[in-house]
Write a sequence for this structure.
């Protein structure tokens, strides 16, 4: 019989070089085990009988554990069905509650490089709810300057409903000056939310110390299960719910709590935070090696994002390149055929890549943006993964360049 | 061979891809996104490239067990097919967008990209055969698509693969079912894919400015007025709304369109019969003919092919038809066959009737 821990470990596809951990990362065996153990036990945490109470106890212990991992109080943890739901809840819930307190509060200030979960929620609020969305511009590295937020708020603080700036960018890995931004928002009495889905587990993330009012995290980016996340929400804030029903989670997020997923999430969070310092060093070492060697192989490869490869500037597991004259989907196809799995880093509808709004907001020309790849490292990454990319990237770029860009003459 | 299978999400391209795999090729599926704002669902037989079609193609690729990607060809498709379609109508010609898509998108843009990415061939679900390098009609005469492929050059054909040409459509549907492809009972697509509601004249009206003109008969007499010549096609009878009836009381048809003056010439059915055809943009599936060629000429996807003699004069093709063809419009392709094999094609620029 195989060892139970080993057999429970989720892994990457045999023979594949998996460098798309920012999309999702293999589950940690400990999280699988904790989750599996709970899956065979009955009990709705909202039930009043013994089975219900047992489930409730497990959920509350997981909540306490997660709160500790992320520097929050247990009562500040609102479990959701993932990062997207938490972002939607933060944006819509905060907008509605703030506006109902004061009808002047219609401005939503968000960075121009947000994930679609924030971006599209803001756009929806503008289209359907009369919000005025102001996109906070970023510099060429993708960073929001605190002075920009200060000006945007100072112009008319009474009309601001909320601010949302991601902790670290999913495409180019740029880390935002969250504590400074939070301090500015606080100074104007405007709540600030941050999507920390990518940052959590790779950077030290402490909700209390950050000064944020709301923060999104999710399970599957840190070795937990897909389909569970949390919105950390300051106790002084009230949110208008998006989902109505049984009134779970402070009446903010109805729906039966997913006990096994929550347990798996908390277990992964505990390990991710405990291992974060050494993990970050390890990921950065692999990433730095990749950056140096890719640029040595493809002379005109452009490193996207912040060139300062330091955890205070950039996610340690993120490498982003643009290859002039190439189409991202061609690069991806050619690497995929060689067993190397990465991402074009941009949003897809029906799998059609659009030039990334993140790169465009950073001032990257559209043609260059189209030829982009994101490699993201995680807990199963090894030096062999870097070697595989370095070996393949030269011929792949050469071939993709011959194929040219769709609609653009070669 | 490394084969790129273009997968529309329909039954034909799915079976074609499966057959390519079975033939031992290393196949990768690609769905071409031809619209920048795809609709979520498809309705009936019209339109294509909805998100549902992309999903159907993906599921077929899963079942077949091949990698699958979506290629964004919307910009090329707009420029080479849709804009061309509108410009042709505005110029008083009748284009065939399916043919143009095969020529410019599937076997130029896609084939070029595939070649550059190290593929050896592009495979589609077209009903046609390639025998000894020659494009040949499919065995199923109702589904034969050699006409819409007649614009391909020998070079393009050398890297094309049509695995369905030897099979009747009914058998392809049964095969799809047997292979567990869920698209087996999906309706065939018809009409013009980028005009989802099927209203071609409405589509053109939105894109071509109104230019009122007159209907004249073959004697030059004005018999009515219209809002724009682009709304008419040679051979059209319905929707002319000519006030004055013909002297002989017979139905009248569009014989000719002159966009510059907005003149639409109308006349009897007999006057639609054409025996001389001139075309440009000749394409040959093999070497260009040196002297007059006895062949059969076809001007519509599922039209009849009539005996003809073709002569290449510079870059023009001049055709004498031994049997008249009715309602031949400039802009249409004339495809020339030697028995079942395609010799080549040309784009019709001018026609002449028996009387001329």
């Amino acid at each position: 019989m195989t060892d139970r821990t080993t057999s429970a470990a989720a892994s990457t596809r045999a023979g594949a070089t998996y460098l798309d951990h920012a999309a999702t990362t293999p589950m940690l065996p400990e999280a699988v085990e904790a989750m599996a153990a709970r899956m065979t036990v009955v009990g709705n945490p909202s039930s009043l009988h013994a089975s219900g109470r047992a489930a409730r106890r497990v959920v509350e212990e997981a909540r306490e554990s997660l709160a500790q991992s992320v520097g929050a109080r247990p009562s500040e943890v609102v479990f959701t069905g993932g990062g997207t739901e938490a972002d939607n809840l933060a944006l819509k819930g905060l907008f509605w509650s703030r506006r109902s307190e004061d009808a002047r509060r219609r401005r939503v200030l968000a960075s121009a490089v947000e994930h679609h979960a924030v971006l599209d929620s803001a756009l929806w609020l503008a289209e359907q709810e009369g919000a005025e969305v102001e996109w906070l511009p970023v510099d060429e590295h993708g960073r929001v300057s605190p002075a920009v937020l200060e000006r945007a708020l100072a112009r008319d603080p009474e009309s601001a409903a909320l601010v949302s700036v991601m902790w670290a960018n999913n495409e180019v890995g740029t880390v935002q000056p969250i504590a400074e931004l939070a301090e500015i928002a606080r100074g104007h009495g405007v709540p600030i939310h941050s999507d920390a889905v990518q940052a959590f587990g790779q950077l030290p993330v402490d909700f209390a110390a950050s000064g944020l009012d709301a923060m999104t995290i999710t399970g599957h980016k840190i070795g937990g299960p897909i389909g569970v996340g949390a919105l950390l929400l300051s106790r002084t804030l009230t949110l208008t719910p998006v989902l109505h029903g049984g009134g779970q989670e402070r009446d903010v997020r109805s729906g039966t709590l997913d006990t096994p997923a929550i347990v798996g999430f908390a277990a992964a969070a505990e390990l991710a935070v405990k291992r974060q310092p050494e993990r970050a060093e390890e990921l950065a070492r692999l990433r730095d090696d990749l950056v140096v060697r890719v640029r040595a192989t493809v002379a005109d490869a452009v490193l996207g994002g912040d060139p300062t490869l330091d955890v205070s500037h950039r996610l340690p597991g993120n490498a982003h390149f643009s290859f002039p004259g190439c189409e991202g989907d061609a690069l991806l196809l050619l690497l995929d055929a060689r067993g190397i799995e990465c991402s074009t880093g941009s949003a897809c509808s029906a799998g059609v890549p659009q030039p990334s709004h993140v790169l465009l907001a950073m001032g990257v020309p559209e043609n260059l943006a189209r030829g982009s790849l994101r490699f993201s490292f995680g807990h199963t990454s090894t030096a062999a993964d870097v070697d595989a990319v370095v070996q393949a990237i030269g011929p792949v770029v050469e071939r993709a360049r011959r194929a040219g860009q769709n609609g653009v003459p070669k | 061979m490394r084969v790129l299978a273009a997968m529309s999400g329909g039954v034909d391209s799915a079976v074609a891809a499966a057959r390519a795999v079975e033939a031992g090729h290393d196949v990768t599926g690609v769905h071409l996104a031809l619209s920048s704002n795809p609709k979520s669902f498809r309705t009936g037989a019209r339109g294509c490239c909805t998100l549902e079609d992309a999903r159907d193609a993906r599921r077929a690729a899963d079942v077949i067990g091949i990698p699958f990607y979506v290629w964004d060809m919307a910009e090329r498709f707009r420029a080479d097919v849709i804009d061309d379609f509108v410009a042709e109508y505005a110029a008083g010609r009748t284009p065939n967008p399916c043919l143009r898509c095969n020529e410019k998108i599937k076997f130029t843009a896609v084939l070029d990209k595939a070649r550059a990415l190290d593929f050896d061939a592009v495979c589609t679900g077209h009903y046609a055969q390639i025998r000894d390098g020659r494009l040949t009609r499919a065995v199923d005469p109702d589904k034969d698509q050699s006409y819409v492929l007649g614009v391909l050059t020998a070079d393009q054909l050398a890297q094309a693969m049509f695995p369905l040409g030897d099979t009747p459509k009914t058998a392809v549907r049964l095969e799809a079912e047997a292979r567990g492809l869920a698209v087996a009972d999906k309706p065939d697509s018809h009409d013009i894919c980028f005009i989802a509601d099927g209203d071609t004249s409405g589509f053109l009206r939105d894109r071509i400015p109104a230019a009122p003109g007159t209907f004249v008969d073959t004697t030059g007499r004005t018999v009515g007025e219209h809002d724009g010549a682009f709304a008419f096609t040679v051979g059209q009878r319905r929707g002319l709304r000519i006030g004055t009836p013909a002297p002989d009381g017979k139905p009248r048809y569009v014989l000719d369109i002159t966009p510059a003056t907005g003149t639409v010439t109308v006349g009897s059915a007999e006057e639609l019969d054409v025996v001389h055809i001139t075309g440009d943009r000749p394409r040959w599936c093999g070497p260009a003919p040196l002297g007059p060629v006895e062949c059969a000429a076809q001007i519509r996807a599922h039209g009849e092919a009539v005996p003809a003699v073709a002569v290449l004069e510079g870059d023009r093709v001049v055709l004498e038809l031994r049997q008249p063809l009715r309602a031949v419009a400039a802009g249409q392709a004339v495809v020339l066959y030697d028995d079942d094999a395609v010799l080549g094609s040309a784009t019709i620029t001018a026609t002449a009737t028996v009387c001329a």
User: Anything to note?
Assistant: Residues 1-8 of chain A have pLDDT under 50 and may be disordered.
